[in-house]
TrEMBL record:
The lineage of its organism: Eukaryota, Metazoa, Chordata, Craniata, Vertebrata. This is tRNA (carboxymethyluridine(34)-5-O)-methyltransferase ALKBH8. Transmembrane segments: none annotated. It is found in: Cytoplasm; Nucleus. InterPro entries: AlkB-like_sf, AlkB_hom8_N, ALKBH8_RRM, Nucleotide-bd_a/b_plait_sf, RBD_domain_sf, RRM_dom. GO terms for cellular component: cytoplasm; nucleus. Its main location: cytoplasm. Interacts with TRMT112. GO terms for biological process: tRNA methylation; tRNA wobble uridine modification. Its cofactor is Fe(2+).
Amino acid sequence: MDSNHQNNYKLNKTEKKFLRKQIKARHTLLRHEGIETVSCATQILVVANGGLGNGVSRNQLLPVLEKCGLVDALLMPPNKPYSFVRYKTTEESKKAYVTLNGKEIVDDLGQKIILYLNFVEKAQWKELELQALPPGLMVVEEIISSEEEKMLLEVQKSLKHRRVKHFGYEFYYENNNVDKNKPLPGGIPAHIDTHSAFEDEIVSLSLGS
């Protein structure tokens, strides 16, 4: 829509209501979270109402966002009612802005939630959240791609009837531990283990969260 058309175009009642709510969401993010939105299109969008703090999970939000393009990263700060999505291209983020603004989704409790999207220059929550981590804990965001995550989740669908291959030490399921005096040949790759069974670093990979 060109500028002349915009000047002559009158919003209907529904459009006016949506615009008010979008502006309100923008002001709320700035006032309470210090998140400043921008008017020009960027690869990153802040999704108001699309956060863990108001009952929206990653599994609910990501498929909605992926309908508009390739999602490079989805950051969902703990206990916050918003999230950040970064698309591969600005064209994809523009499509999401137009398509998903005002879109209604259902949260974990079955309540209807309306999403409001705005462009931002960067995701600003990381520095604040990392200060609250326990000493020695390091969080590495988006260490694998969304495609790799999907592949791993597909593998885990058969978890109940899984076959287990041990590396480093054999895990004894009867006591949820290992015998460190009986190492298996070869090294031990990064995986999820019972913390009390080992010393030094433990690597945990979170999928679909």
